[in-house]
């Protein structure tokens, strides 16, 4: 990685910048798209800056489905991304709210703490209020 790029970002961003550069190198070497795990809005912004700097195109799953965490697809200019390229599955929970109301925090806590699913494996939880 061009270490000179660090000067434009905070020191806390360096580990993610290094990871982003690994992903960009994969696309450059293979000339094929690369799909990231779910990343937060700040990381998405950093990755889009890196992609532009290195002449790659990128799209976010947030362009198709509204969520806080998104997957970013890095790709060469010939590629035309579609929703299916983001490998996202939308799930719905239907329950009787007769006894309890499920909040975003309760669902997120259960998914992470009780089910042991890593946060980077899902984009967001939308609660219909």
What does this protein look like?
The chain is mainly α and 129 residues long. The chain has a domain at 3-86: Ribosomal Protein S8, Chain: A, domain 1, CATH 3.30.1370.160. 32% of the residues lie in helices and 8% in strands. It contains 3 helices and 3 strands, in the order H-E-H-E-E-H. Strands 1-3-2 form a 3-stranded antiparallel β-sheet. Helix 1 (14-30) crosses helix 2. The radius of gyration is 17 Å and the shape is elongated. It starts with 13 loop residues before the first helix and ends in a 15-residue tail after the last helix. The mean pLDDT is 88.
Topology:
Elements: H1 14-30, E1 34-35, H2 41-53, E2 57-60, E3 72-75, H3 104-114
Antiparallel strand pairs: 1-3, 2-3
Provide a quick synopsis of the model.
The protein is mostly helical and 129 residues long. Helix content is 32%, strand content 8%. The longest helix is centred in the N-terminal third of the chain and has 17 residues, at 14-30.
């Amino acid at each position: 990685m061009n270490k000179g790029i660090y000067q434009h970002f905070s020191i806390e961003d360096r580990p993610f910048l290094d990871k982003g550069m690994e992903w960009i190198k994969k696309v450059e070497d293979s000339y094929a798209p690369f799909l990231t795990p779910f990343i937060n809005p700040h990381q998405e912004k950093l990755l889009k800056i890196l992609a532009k700097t290195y002449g790659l195109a990128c799209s976010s799953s947030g362009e198709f489905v509204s969520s806080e965490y998104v997957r970013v697809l890095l790709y060469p200019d010939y590629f035309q991304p579609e929703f299916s390229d983001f490998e996202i599955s939308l799930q719905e929970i239907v329950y009787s709210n007769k006894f309890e109301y499920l909040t975003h925090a309760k669902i997120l806590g259960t998914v992470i703490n009780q089910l042991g699913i890593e946060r980077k494996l899902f984009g967001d939880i939308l609660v219909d209020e």
